[in-house]
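Example 191, ligand adenosine-5'-diphosphate.
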Amino acid sequence: MRLIIMGPPGAGKGTQARFIAEHFKIPAISTGDIFRANVSRGTPLGVEAKRYMDAGEYVPDKVTNLMVRHRIDEPDATNGFLLDGYPRTLAQVEELDGMIKFTGHRLDAVVVLTVDRDEIVKRLIQRAQVEGRTDDTEDVIRRRQEVYAEETEPLIEIYRSRDLLVEADGMGEVHDVTQRIFDALDVIPES
Ligand code: ADP
């Protein structure tokens, strides 16, 4: 099973990604988590990524693509994976297509969480307080929403045109959202 979960910053992708990944026994691969782990370890990748993350900008495609390529080459991702936070740009979509094609597999579905914009910003401010994320000041939150709308939202139409899109209402209780995603995914045959 090769899946992508998409949605604006604060849509609850990470939470839902864990449940979906557990169900299909595949790793949930979060580019944001990998970047943050590198930032806290102070690796060269972390040092570079932090500059962009703290400004609410995307890390350059070259850097992100290489990181994902290495991650999905790991043995635990042989039978599939769920990508959370990737692809986020058109160039990343093309890169991922190439990576998957190379292995002789295909993408099974792209889950999109739809949420209310005001609710999102509220959630992000709460999360910033709880987790102390340096990339979550109010200005940065706003910038990240803009960048999402400009760079990532258009990808939804690409995946819709490929008949891969599975939309789920991301509002409400966590387990209700999970149920909606599972209901929507059940119609997709496993590969
Ligand atoms: P959120 O879920 O709040 O949108 P993430 O935790 O997924 O944020 O990512 C945090 C930051 O890491 C992003 O704002 C961006 O700077 C960087 N990042 C994560 N994934 C990508 C990607 N695919 N391309 C470029 N930058 C990325």
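Summary: The pocket of adenosine-5'-diphosphate is lined by residues 9, 13, 31-32, 35, 52-53, 58-59, 64, 85-86, 88, 92, 135, 144 (CB under 6 Å).
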